[in-house]
Design brief:
The chain has about 90 residues and is α+β, with helices and mostly antiparallel strands. It has three helices and six strands. The chain has one domain.
Length: about 90
Amino acid sequence: MKTAQSRVPRRSFFHVVVLSIGFVVGGLMTMLARKFLPVGAVKEFMTSGLQPSLGPLKVDLIILNFALGPVVLDVTFLSLVGVLIAYLIARSLF
């Protein structure tokens, strides 16, 4: 019989995968909405959102010097809908 402890890493991996798939699907829906919806209040609501960023981050390791970034996360209403859809599909499968 498995304990609840052995399920924790598997469950967190499952949540990360569902969130990743959801944000990709939501990003695709946002891109399509930005391209095909006519200008108006609906397009503005569906495609505007928060864009937190990190960077550029400079890393100097004496023999190796590089910069990362900036890394931007574009969170819109449609990206959250994508996460919800991915969660509901994953929940119905498992």
